[in-house]
Structures are given as structure tokens and as C-alpha cells.
Design goal:
The structure holds 2 protein chains of 2 kinds. Chain A is 34% helix and 24% strand. The N and C termini of chain A lie far apart (85 Å). Chain B is an alpha+beta fold. Chain B contains 16 helices and 26 strands. In chain B, the strands form 5 sheets. In chain B, strands 8, 18, 19, 20, 21, 22, 23, 24, 25 and 26 form a 10-stranded mixed sheet that branches. Chain B has a 6-stranded antiparallel barrel with strand order 1-2-5-4-3-6. A 4-stranded antiparallel sheet of chain B has the order 12-11-9-14, with no helix packed on it. Classes of the chains: A alpha/beta, B alpha+beta.
């Protein structure tokens, strides 16, 4: 393998190398510094005159006499079943002091696109034990459902709670968790690791850690490493995988940094025009494939800069993922955990994952009714602020009270409280009982008679 | 091999490859590297050729071979299109799965039409007949509902010297012309070139979609264009799926352009199960699907809308009505932007290339109701979804689209958050076809229908005005007649405009049912005002008995008796 000492320019994370033999696009590059240490990079642009290399560990210490070697290979991850229980760096090397991972397979981290013809539509209900998710925005196996959060909100607690409690009922199959941290602080990482260790979840987890003080460019690899591990375990070992990616905002910042260094034409707010495609190559790796047992469910977390849902990062994410769980600063300030604002939240796949035989027969109409009632109550709050509660009609007051109770009793729950779907639905019925039956226009009479607390009580009394 | 057909790679930057040593024309297809990755020429600079490659270029090196095919990007048009599931450059995805497994690997080639399938060809012309481009020489019953008419390729004409009948594969010759031209069951057509026709005709027939808000208030004509812009989660894709399911056209071409893989899977699983209300056969029997999902190569995404519209034009040329759903044109525009960025072109607004507007206009202009070359009448209706960043309609793709299309269905995140679906904002949306279609409505539905529509829209407008006051002082402060108006508006919104896409009955609503429902609301309106005059309280009207029966009647297969009974019940309760 030839070694080149022909670096002509270093700009931010990029190296420009001249007078090389033909180099392949996307090739992995090793750079040896004057002090003998090495760094890795990847070819971003190749031509007969100059090759552009992006350096994952940052270009600090590199001088024009550093040695550059092109490996002729692309970036790969050492995959093995023994990855479970291990902590790896953002670039896939063990950092838990344990032995090296002996690869069963060295997989390319750029996953090929799943043929849409080979997919199966996700339908299996995942019970997370969180009412605002299970009842209102149901998660199914093979879905990609992000959490849109803001700085200072308890998104990590929610992710951990989901990781802890998620199960497909009646199957007894547990999830293996792949946790990829990008640019999160040591403190946050510690919180995750402590919880994983304490609950014994680490045994069924693979952790990829790229912390805030690790090189930003390495973050571009981390989610791809994590998803490669997920695909390996799901498709070779038939495991059901839950992938948690946190924080995608940091990933996008790294993407913007590279784009700026390459002097590309910027899109919105300086993010590159190809960010949608780039994010899609990460998120679309969730799913189910015909004839394969394992599945990949994704829960990416991102913090919306300035709580702005129209910012390019949440915006492009929302266009790719199958819904979103949105956290609200207002609910958080009211002391409600989890502060999930159900109105802008959405699960696109829930309609196929709920109802008779999946969750419960009343779930679909129950969901419509709960949404409509809560939305009406929230609207009325705006009115109360102007005219006072006295000016409201009797009916309006019922909906107003419903909205309050919905937040205090239904959304609010403990960090370790694991509600079954029946508990969630019954709790919802208790709240709906605060309204008149004639207000429940979205539910058919047969379900009202079956599940409405007043009818249930009557039926019990008769029995 | 001709000189200048083979050259080598000079530079690789993502999907953009720069080659030397070939002398192609613009938009010629080239093959890059040993794997023969397909690409299209998008620029010529001195001796260098800029090629956008439809597949991942990892591993391609300077010096690798580049071959010019000398042909523009084309699709194969012939029997076998219906029920197909293609990627953006007409490779059948089932065939790709067979050859490369569950993941799409690179450099696979697969013809758009099966070479082994046999089709029963029945000639409709005989020896000695003079035929010219676009004329029908025979038919193939492709599916239970689609009769595939075999056309003479445009630009070709002559006298038939041989014509055969029987079972043929697409590459077999079925007719020979006096100039020696052999006609096969299929021909190729370059995707970026609109197929010719005799003349455009005015669009005067509505496209019936079975969606109340669309058909009644904002109809699109057959051969017309419509755009559905909306933020994520507002129901663009569900609306597009509904249109693909229930539009009363003979053929539907659905283009999933840069969207989610699971959405295409949903269509694929659902369409063979759903029955077309007109023919009683599965919807798949008239559908062509094109999927270039967001994670598939971006250059092929750019090509996918052209592939789709060319196939649509081909069926139009047979004399059919065709509906094209493009979800989403924003992803197509982004693909253009991405490639333009790689070409280092001077950007226009928000980084989009300056030719964005003209490309969009070119695409939508391929829609239309036409007199085909063979004298039949066919149409292509195009409905494009737009995904504006942050739901902001002032961005370039939405704005440039609105300058071209005649119908605007504005999706509204606020309605969606309230689970009011379809979340189409009735105050913002418009249709410029209302006037030209009114004659059709008068002749085919009822003259009263147009009046009812006008009345309902007026009520909704008035409601919006009153809501502003209600926001400030509460509804109790309004006079009784206005409170009744609010109540009537609520019926229009909840009973009429809201439609459950996933309810087996409500998912599709015929014109007759639309008319009956709207008329029902008008009757209630008259009863309410009479009751008010007779001294009834507004609260009695608001909570009148029979209200729930009325609202649920639309969910019944046999809705009419229930609807009438509910009106009767309400009338009795209020007027005695």
C-alpha cells in the first residue's frame, strides 16, 4: 500500500492530497502523524488531480508531511453476537476495557436500501407502559418514532423508560437495545450507563458512545455503526432491536460542519441541501422484512433548537419518520412527567397496530374521542384567559375540566410506572365519563355500553 | 464501437461523476465502472462530461471505464406495465429482489417489461392498411379490466405487409410495414420528452374521487392539475392514497418519490385487496406503482417523476383517462437541488436551481385532456403533493407549483392536530375548475347541487368571521340566529367535510350520496331557523334528539333511510 506525503491543504476537518494513484470514492484512509499516532478518514471527493479526505478524529496535529494511506476498503464494523453487553466508541472500538471483538463478519456501515418490495408492513403493538404513547400514539415493531424534545426536558428519562418497559405482549420476546450517543455530555452518558447497569439491561444492549468532547466528525459514523450492529443482530440472530439515537441534533451539526468546510452551497439555515437524503439513509433502516424474524424499531431523540418544530432538523426528520412524540415545556413546567403533548404528536402506523385482537376493540374510536375532547378543552383555555370561566356554557366547562384531568391523571405517570394497555384504556374511559354520553359522538354505542364506567357499574350491579 | 463511446472517470463526488474521452449528447445514458452503474449526462464542459449516476458510487476510481450508450433515458412501453412495481428508472423491484435479495445492491440490470411473459394479441388492422404513429394495430387483454391497445410508435408510419395473431412475447414482431419496420408489442420512449398528440381539449369532466371536500368544493377536472401542500403529519400521503384508490380513471400511476418505504409496502399490501367500486375488481388491476424511497439513490429519484408521467401518457394515447399521483414533488425538487449543488451551479432561491420553475411547469404541462394521434380522447390528471419545510407555503417549491396548477388543496396542521381529516383547509383551498365543471354537475348530479355548495361555503365563511368574535367574548354573547349558524357550520364540518379514510363505508362517497348529505344539512338548517322563530331555545337546537343518528348515518351502507329518519326525528322534536 502506497504512502503519500503530498497533503496540499488542510481546511477544518478536510485534507486535500495531491498526485495520488487512482483512489476510490468512499475509501477508508489512515493518516500517520509525525509523532506516530494515527487517525482515520474517508474519501469525499476523488479525481486525477486531488483527493479530498474527511478526517474523523479532527485534523489537530496533522501537518503537510503527515503520511496518508488509502486502504482500498470502505468503513466497516466488526460484527459479532458478543457485541451484546459491550460499550464501544462512536467509531466502533471497544472502550469498556474488555477484549477486542472477534468479528464473525465485517459489515459495510453504509447499509444498502431495503427493497420496498421485501418489506412487511409493521403491525405488532409494542407496549411501552406509557399511556400517552400506548393509548394516543401507539408504537409498533419496525416503526421509526422520534422524540422531539427541547433542551432541559426529560427526553432521556422517557427513552430509558421505553427501553426498560417495551415489550410485545404475549410473545415473551424481549428487545435488545442498541444505544447510540452522539455528542451527549459525560453526565448524560453516565445517567444512561448507570440505569442500564442497575436494571441489568446492559446485558442485552450494545452501547456506542460519542461524547460531547469526542471529535464531531466521528458522529457521522456513530448512527451508521449502531444500525449496522442492529441489522446484524436482527437479521443474523433473529433479535428484535430497539435503536435509540441521541441526540440527532448533534449529528446534523456535524453534517453542517463538513458541508461548510467543503464550501458547498448551503440550504436552509446553513444545513446542506442533501440533509434530507442523508437522514433518510439512517431512519429508513428501521423496519420489518418478509421472511426474517428480527425487526428494527428506531427511537431517535432530537432537541429542537429554540423549541422550534419548523427548524430544519425536526422538520426533515418528521417528513421521514413515521410520526413523532413531541414534548412540551409547558407541561414540564406544570410538573407533569412525561411532558408529552399529544396534540402535535402522531404515530402514522398505529391504525394498523390497534383494535380488536391487537390492543382492544374500542381503541380506535376511543382514540378519536380522546383527541377531539382534549383538543376542544385546550381551545377553551384560550377563551377562559379572556372572558373568565363564568362566561362558559355548562358543556364548555365539562371539556375544560376534561383537559385538565387528562394532563394530570392520564399523561402524568411515574418513571417506573408500567401501565398495561387495558389500564390505559380504562383510565381514559374514567375521564370520558366526566363528559355526557351525548358528547361522545365519535364512539359507537356498543363500545359505550361495554366500557363506559356508568354502564359497567350497572352491569356489575345487575350481576 | 464508435470512437468517443468509451472513456474513463476523471472525478467522483457522490452521485456526480466527471468523465473524459467520450463525446455524448446531453441526457445520454452512460455506464460507469466495471459494474456498469447507470447514469445520465447532465453537463458538458470542454472535453469533460458530467454524469449523474443513479446508484451509490462508493469504490469508483478515476481511470475506471465509462461507456456511452448513445441513448437517452427511456422506458419500455407495452403489456406488463399494469400491476408492476418499479424503481425510479423502471427496474422492477420484484426482479431486483430475486437477483439481489432483500437489499438493493448495485449494478443490477433488469428490463422494465418481462421478456418471458406471453400475451394474446388480437390485430385490429389488416394487410394493406396504412398506419401512422399512435394508431392502434391490435389489443392485448392485460388484466381483467385493462385492454392494452398496441400502438404504432409515434414518428413511424407505413403500410402493413404482415400482421400476426396469437401468443407473443413483448420482443416478438407482430406486424411488418412496407418500409421494413418491424412492430413489436412494446416500444421505447425517452422519459424527458412529452409524447405527441393532436390537440389539447378543454377539461370539462370532473375527476370523481369519492372524497366529499374535494368533489363538492374543490373539484379537479380530468386532465387537470392539482397540488396538495402540507406540513408533515397533515395527511398528504393518506389523501394521495385515497385518490389512487377511488379516482374514477381507467389507469392510476402512483409515484412514491423520495418518501417512506413502509408507505409503498402499505399500497402494495392493500391495493390487491381493495375493490374498485366501478369494476368490482382489485384496484391493483389498473395500477402502476413507482417507488424511489428516500434512501434510494437521489438521481433515480429525480428521474422517477418522468418515468411515471411517460407511462401515464402512453395509456392516455390509447384513449384512457389516467390519474398520476406524485408524492412528493418536493423530494423531486430537492433531488434537483442536490445535483445542481454538486454541479456547482449558481443557486436560485433557498439553494434550488434557477430552472426549478421551468422544470415544474414542464412536468405539469404534460397533464391534459387531449385528442390523441389516433383520434381518441384521453387524459392525464396530475396531483402533486408538496412538502413545504416547516409547513411554510411561501417557500419556492410551493410557490412555483401554485403558479401552474389550477387546484390547490391546502392541508392544515391545526386541523390535523384536531384529528379533522381530511385536514384540508376550506378557506384557503381553491379550484379554478368550478365554473367549467358546473354544466357537468347540472346535467349529471342536480342543478340544485351547485346552489347547495354555494350556500354551504357561505355558511363556513360566515362561521370563520363569527369565530373571531367568539374567541373574544364567548359564544353566549352572540344573538340566537348566529348561534344557530355556528351549529349548522358544525354539521357541515363534522358531518360533511370530515371523512374517515379507514372506515369501510365512509372511505368512498358517491356524488349522489354527497348531494343527499348536503341536502340533509340544508333541511336541518331550515328546521332550526323555523324552530327559532317558533320560540325554541338555542340550547334545545344544539342538543336536539336525533342529532347522533344524523351524524352516524353516513357510516351506513344504506344511508338514505337512516338519514331521512334522523331528519324526521329532529323535525318532530323541534317543530312537533
Amino acid at each position: 500500500m502506497k504512502e503519500y506525503r503530498t497533503i496540499s491543504q488542510v481546511a477544518g476537518p478536510l485534507l486535500f492530497v495531491e498526485k495520488t494513484e487512482p483512489v476510490g470514492y468512499g475509501e477508508l484512509v489512515n493518516i500517520t502523524l509525525a509523532d506516530g499516532s494515527t487517525k482515520r478518514g474517508q474519501v469525499l471527493d476523488t479525481s486525477k488531480d486531488v483527493v479530498v479526505v474527511q478526517v474523523f478524529e479532527g485534523t489537530r496535529g496533522i501537518d503537510t508531511s503527515s503520511a496518508v494511506r488509502f486502504t482500498g476498503d470502505i468503513v466497516r464494523l466488526n460484527c459479532s453476537q458478543d457485541m451484546l453487553g459491550r460499550i464501544l466508541s462512536g467509531a466502533g472500538d471497544p472502550i469498556d476495557g474488555g477484549p477486542k471483538i472477534i468479528p464473525e463478519e465485517r459489515r459495510e456501515i453504509i447499509g444498502a436500501a431495503i427493497n420496498p418490495y421485501a418489506r412487511t408492513y409493521p403491525r405488532e403493538f409494542i407496549q411501552t407502559g406509557i399511556s400517552a404513547i400506548d393509548g394516543m400514539n401507539t408504537l409498533v415493531r419496525g416503526q421509526k418514532l422520534p422524540i422531539f424534545s427541547g433542551s432541559g426536558l426529560p427526553h432521556n428519562d422517557i427513552a430509558l423508560q421505553v427501553a426498560r418497559q417495551a415489550k410485545v405482549r404475549g410473545s415473551g420476546e424481549e428487545f435488545a437495545v442498541i444505544f447510540a450517543a452522539m455528542g451527549i455530555t459525560n453526565e448524560e452518558a453516565y445517567q444512561f450507563m448507570k440505569d442500564f447497569e442497575r436494571t441489568g439491561a446492559l446485558e442485552r444492549a450494545v452501547v456506542f458512545l460519542n461524547l460531547a468532547d469526542d471529535p464531531a466528525i466521528e458522529r457521522l459514523l456513530t448512527p451508521r455503526m449502531a444500525l449496522t450492529a442492529a441489522e446484524f443482530l436482527a437479521y443474523e440472530y433473529d433479535l428484535h432491536i430497539l435503536v435509540i439515537l441521541t441526540d440527532m441534533t448533534n449529528y446534523c451539526e456535524a453534517l453542517r460542519e463538513i458541508s461548510a468546510a467543503r464550501e458547498e452551497v448551503p440550504g436552509r439555515r446553513g444545513y446542506p441541501g442533501y440533509m434530507y437524503t442523508d437522514l433518510a439513509t439512517i431512519y429508513e433502516r428501521a423496519g420489518r422484512i418478509q421472511g426474517r424474524k428480527g425487526t428494527i424499531t428506531q427511537m431517535p431523540i432530537l432537541t429542537m433548537p429554540g423549541d422550534d418544530i419548523t427548524h430544519p432538523i425536526p422538520d426533515l426528520t418528521g417528513y421521514i419518520t413515521e410520526g413523532q412524540v413531541v414534548l412540551s415545556r409547558e407541561l414540564h413546567a406544570k410538573g407533569i412527567y412525561p411532558p408529552i403533548d399529544v396534540l402535535p404528536s402522531l404515530s402514522r402506523l398505529m391504525k394498523e397496530g390497534i383494535g380488536e385482537g391487537l390492543t382492544r376493540d374500542d381503541h380506535v374510536q376511543w382514540n378519536d374521542q380522546m383527541y377531539a375532547a382534549y383538543a376542544e378543552g385546550v381551545d377553551l383555555r384560550g377563551l377562559v384567559a379572556i372572558v373568565g370561566e363564568e362566561a362558559l356554557s355548562e358543556r364548555d366547562r365539562r371539556f375544560l375540566r376534561f383537559a385538565d384531568e387528562f394532563e394530570r391523571r392520564f399523561v402524568q405517570q411515574g418513571r417506573y410506572e408500567d401501565r398495561s394497555i387495558e389500564e390505559t384504556l380504562d383510565l381514559g374511559w374514567e375521564l370520558l365519563a366526566m363528559l355526557r354520553e351525548s358528547d361522545l359522538t365519535k364512539i359507537e354505542t356498543k363500545y359505550i355500553e361495554k366500557y363506559h364506567p356508568a354502564h359497567k357499574k350497572k352491569a356489575e350491579a345487575e350481576a | 464501437m464508435e470512437v468517443g463511446m468509451k472513456g474513463e472517470v476523471y472525478r467522483v463526488s457522490g452521485p456526480l461523476v466527471v468523465a473524459e474521452g467520450i463525446k455524448p449528447r446531453m441526457y445520454d445514458v452512460c455506464r460507469v465502472g466495471e459494474e456498469g452503474l447507470m447514469g445520465e449526462v447532465v453537463g458538458l464542459v470542454g472535453v469533460k462530461t458530467l454524469i449523474q449516476v443513479y446508484e451509490d458510487t462508493s469504490g469508483i476510481k478515476p481511470g475506471d471505464v465509462v461507456e456511452n450508450t448513445g441513448m437517452p433515458l427511456s422506458v419500455e412501453l407495452g403489456p406488463g406495465l399494469i400491476r408492476s412495481f418499479y424503481d425510479g428508472i423502471q427496474r422492477p423491484l420484484p426482479a431486483l429482489k430475486e437477483s439481489s435479495g432483500d437489499f438493493i445492491s448495485r449494478g443490477i440490470q433488469a428490463p422494465g417489461l418481462s421478456r418471458t411473459a406471453e400475451w394474446e394479441f388480437k390485430p385490429t388492422v389488416k394487410k394493406g392498411d396504412k398506419v401512422s404513429g399512435g394508431e392502434i394495430i391490435g389489443t392485448v387483454q392485460e388484466t381483467d379490466v385493462v385492454e392494452h391497445r398496441i400502438l404504432v410508435p409515434p414518428k413511424i408510419s407505413g403500410i402493413i405487409t404482415e400482421i400476426y395473431e396469437g401468443k407473443f412475447k413483448v420482443e416478438d414482431t407482430v406486424a411488418v410495414l412496407d418500409n421494413g419496420t418491424e412492430l413489436k408489442l412494446y416500444h421505447k420512449w425517452p422519459v424527458r420528452e412529452a409524447r405527441p398528440y393532436q390537440e389539447k381539449l378543454p377539461p370539462v369532466i370532473p375527476l370523481m374521487t369519492g372524497q366529499r371536500i374535494l368533489d363538492t368544493f374543490f373539484p379537479v377536472a380530468k386532465g387537470g392539475t392539482a397540488a396538495i401542500p402540507g406540513p408533515f403529519g397533515s395527511g398528504k400521503t393518506v389523501t394521495q392514497h385515497q385518490l389512487a384508490k377511488w379516482s374514477d380513471t381507467e389507469i392510476v400511476v402512483y409515484i412514491g418519490c423520495g418518501e417512506r418505504g413502509n408507505e409503498m409496502t402499505e399500497v402494495l399490501e392493500e391495493f390487491p385487496e381493495l375493490m374498485d367500486p366501478k369494476t368490482g375488481k382489485p384496484l391493483m388491476e389498473r395500477t402502476v406503482l413507482i417507488a424511489n424511497t428516500s434512501n434510494m439513490p437521489v438521481a433515480a429519484r429525480e428521474a422517477s417523476v418522468y418515468t411515471g408521467i411517460t407511462i401515464a401518457e402512453y395509456f392516455r394515447d390509447m384513449g384512457y383517462d389516467v390519474a398520476v399521483q406524485a408524492d412528493s414533488t418536493s423530494r423531486w425538487a430537492e433531488a434537483m437541488r442536490e445535483i445542481s449543488g454538486r454541479l456547482e451551479e449558481m443557486p436560485g432561491e433557498e439553494g434550488y436551481p434557477a430552472y426549478l420553475a421551468s422544470r415544474l411547469a414542464e412536468f405539469y404541462e404534460r397533464a391534459g385532456r387531449v385528442k390523441t394521434l389516433n383520434g381518441e380522447v384521453g387524459s392525464v390528471t396530475v396531483v402533486g403533493a408538496v412538502s413545504p419545510p416547516g409547513g411554510d407555503f411561501s417557500e419556492p417549491v410551493t410557490q412555483n407549483t401554485l403558479r401552474i396548477v389550477k387546484v390547490f388543496w391546502a392541508l392544515d396542521a391545526k386541523l390535523a392536530a384536531r384529528r379533522h381529516f381530511p385536514a384540508i383547509n376550506w378557506l384557503q383551498s381553491y379550484s379554478l375548475y368550478l365554473d367549467v365543471l358546473s354544466d357537468w354537475f347540472k346535467d349529471n348530479v342536480s342543478a340544485e347541487f351547485i346552489e347547495l355548495r354555494r350556500w354551504a361555503m357561505e355558511v363556513l365563511q360566515e362561521e370563520a368571521n363569527l369565530q373571531e368574535i367568539v374567541q373574544l367574548v364567548g359564544s353566549d354573547a352572540l344573538p340566537d340566529s348566529q348561534r344557530v349558524l355556528l351549529e349548522v357550520a358544525r354539521y357541515i364540518r363534522e358531518f360533511y367535510l370530515q371523512q374517515y379514510a379507514y372506515h369501510p363505508v365512509d372511505t368512498y362517497c358517491s356524488f349522489q350520496k354527497q348531494y343527499d348529505m348536503l341536502k340533509g344539512i340544508k333541511e336541518l338548517n331550515d328546521i332550526f331557523y323555523k324552530a327559532l322563530e317558533a320560540g325554541r331555545l338555542v340550547t334545545e337546537i344544539e342538543e336536539v334528539e336525533g342529532k347522533e343518528d344524523f351524524e352516524r348515518s353516513k357510516l351506513e351502507e344504506d344511508y338514505k333511510p337512516k338519514l331521512e329518519a334522523a331528519i324526521e326525528k329532529i323535525k318532530k322534536a323541534l317543530l312537533g
